Amino acid sequence: MKRNLTATLALTAAALVGNAAAQGKISAQSIIVNPTQPDLAVSVTVNKDASGNANPTYRIGEKITVSATVNRDAYVYLFNVNADGTTDQILPNRLGGDNFVKAGTTKTFPAPGDNFTFDIGGPVGQNKVLALASLTPLNLEQISQFRTAQDQFATVSARTQAGFAQALSIVVNPLPQNSWVSDTAFYNVVNQAPVSTGALFIGTNVDATVILNGQRLGGSNVTYANLRPGTYPVRIQAPGYNDFATTVTVRQGAVTNLNVDLTPTQPVYTTQPSTGNPILDLIGGLLGLNTQVSDPARSANDQKVADLQRQGYTLQGTRQTTTGYVSTLVKGGSTVTVTVTRGANRTLSVQVTETTTYRY
């Protein structure tokens, strides 16, 4: 599960007037603060700033964790105020986000072991995370609601920061002055660093398949652009030809060229049966009766491999045995082995076995 945080917050300094001593005040630093000095304290931090006093930078797409610590048993409510004035309610939530925190302990979201992340979204700019701690549970119905039974996060109704602060002030207004407190953490959001890419040209003397870093890239004699710079293993394959394997280095803003002449697989030779007459056998050899033909076992192996590649399998390798060839291909959790064996009376046996690994 991913939840996006979005950016900038511009606060309007103003005070809310009321009869209760604990009525919150809007603050340019903390959104809402208790005007008294309660002995209840809460501290909120983000994972890049353990002190809670700095203003760390996150790039869009980075993961963030938010932590809150209290000095007394309290209910902690976490909010992120966005650049457009909207607010995300981080805690409580339906992902196991219990918001009761014991004195002297820290509540972290996401907690270690959670099967989801909290990812930074956009736009760029200054962000604030508000922690509001209360000795008693708060009724947030005026602030946020789970719109459907499937919602994992509540939707905050206030569409501006001033409206959000006003709503919070109404919530805490009836509380005793020593029963709630707030704290704010700051972080800045910037754009993702631009990724400079390179290109790779693979040239071959025959039509071939190019596998880059274990993934099928496509055919040969093609320039592939938008590749991340780095050094990768590359394998080039064509039916009836020996595989070629090497490494290539893709450089930023440049085209890397790799030109390969694939060599045919080792042929076998068949000899015209002897006539019993050495002179006739010699004449037959001179006339070309001794001929060179392709290895039928390799041809059968390559044909079966090509069929499987068209089904989305990736060839991992082919090896020659004393009786034929063995090729291994993979797709997802499945591994297919193609075994071609030469039999008696000029026969070939082609066996395909598949092994699939399941996680339970």
Question: What does this entry look like structurally?
Answer:
This protein is mostly beta strands and 360 residues long. It is built from three helices and 28 strands. The chain folds into three domains: 189 residues, S-adenosyl-L-methionine-dependent methyltransferases, CATH 2.20.130.20; 63 residues, Immunoglobulin-like (Sandwich), CATH 2.60.40; 66 residues. 28% of the residues are buried. It holds the Pfam family PEGA. Keywords: Signal. This is S-layer protein.
Short synopsis of the structure:
The protein has 360 residues and is mainly beta. It is 10% helix and 43% strand.
CATH arch. level architecture of the largest domain? Single Sheet
Strand-residue proportion = 35-45%
Rg, alpha carbons: 35 Å
Helix/strand/pairing category: mainly beta
Q: What's the rounded overall pLDDT mean?
A: 83
Count of discrete structural domains: 3
Number of DSSP helical runs:
3
Query: Do you know the CATH topology of the largest domain?
Result: S-adenosyl-L-methionine-dependent methyltransferases
Low-confidence stretches: 1-21, 288-293
Describe the global form: elongated
Largest sheet data: 6 strands, mixed
Ends distance = 21 Å
Estimate percent helicity.
Answer: 10-25%
DSSP summary, beta strand count: 28
- Which class of the largest domain in CATH terms? Mainly Beta
Domain PEGA: 198-266
Protein name: S-layer protein
Signal peptide: 1-22
InterPro entries: Carb-bd-like_fold, DUF4384, PEGA
